[in-house]
Design goal:
The chain is of the alpha+beta class. It has a domain of 105 residues: Ubiquitin Conjugating Enzyme (Roll), CATH 3.10.110.10. It contains five helices and four strands; from the N terminus they run E-E-E-E-H-H-H-H-H. Strands 1-2-3-4 form a four-stranded antiparallel β-sheet. Keywords: Acetylation, Phosphoprotein. Protects DRG2 from proteolytic degradation. This is RWD domain-containing protein 1.
């Protein structure tokens, strides 16, 4: 597209070949002939771009500068545009390569995560000692709680006297037992028949007897 005749100024839109998923990158170059062109380089700039990042734009400007210096003294617009065309095609290929690398990286990360899930964390002296310290602390806390519970249970345990004071039914428990047994208690008198035959010393006759 010609913008002016004096000085000669025009734009050329350069588009890459279609890459993966039919995506393309594109830029519009603006050229202005200087008075002594082609013995001096034309003025050039990128007036628009699509799907190019800042690094790509910088690389294209450097490429134009290099090609203009190398072709000084010759008609060079076609050469400059061709160089930019090749650069855009490279960028499309780089995008494809970058996406493939990102995909492979994600696959490697997923595979590594799966391995960690099955194999766990390798045991080292450092992480074992950390685990041991944590385990001992948890075990000590469990023991403290248990001792506290046992101590509390001991405080709450009632003596026999306290049980009788709280439940008067225990006062007649023996009587109830006898009634349930029919109030019949048999005594084997033969156990006491030969009590008189036992030679039992009177405690008072014992020289070692001490009533205190």
């Amino acid at each position: 597209t010609v913008l002016s005749e004096k000085p000669t100024t025009f734009t050329i839109t350069v588009t890459s070949e279609a890459g993966e998923n039919d995506e393309t990158v594109q830029t519009t170059l603006k050229f202005t002939y200087r008075e002594k062109y082609p013995d001096e380089t034309p003025l050039y700039e990128l007036v628009s771009q699509e799907n190019l990042d800042d690094n790509d734009v910088t690389d294209i400007i450097k490429l134009l500068e290099q090609q203009a210096e190398e072709n000084l003294g010759m008609v060079m617009i076609f050469t400059l545009v061709s160089a930019v065309q090749e650069k855009l095609n490279e960028i499309v290929d780089q995008i494809k390569t970058r996406r493939e690398e990102e995909k492979k990286q994600k696959e490697r990360e997923a595979e590594e995560e799966e391995k960690q899930r099955f194999h766990g964390t390798p045991v080292t002296i450092e992480n074992f000692l950390n685990w041991k310290a944590k385990f001992d602390a948890e075990l000590l806390e469990i023991k403290r709680k248990k001792m506290k519970e046992e101590e509390q249970a001991g405080k709450n345990k009632l003596s026999g006297k306290q049980l009788f004071e709280m439940d008067h039914n225990l006062d007649t428990s023996d009587i109830q037992f006898l009634e349930e047994a029919g109030n019949s208690v048999e005594v084997d008198e033969s156990l006491f028949q030969e009590m008189d035959d036992l030679e039992l010393e009177d405690e008072e006759d014992d020289p070692d007897y001490n009533p205190v």
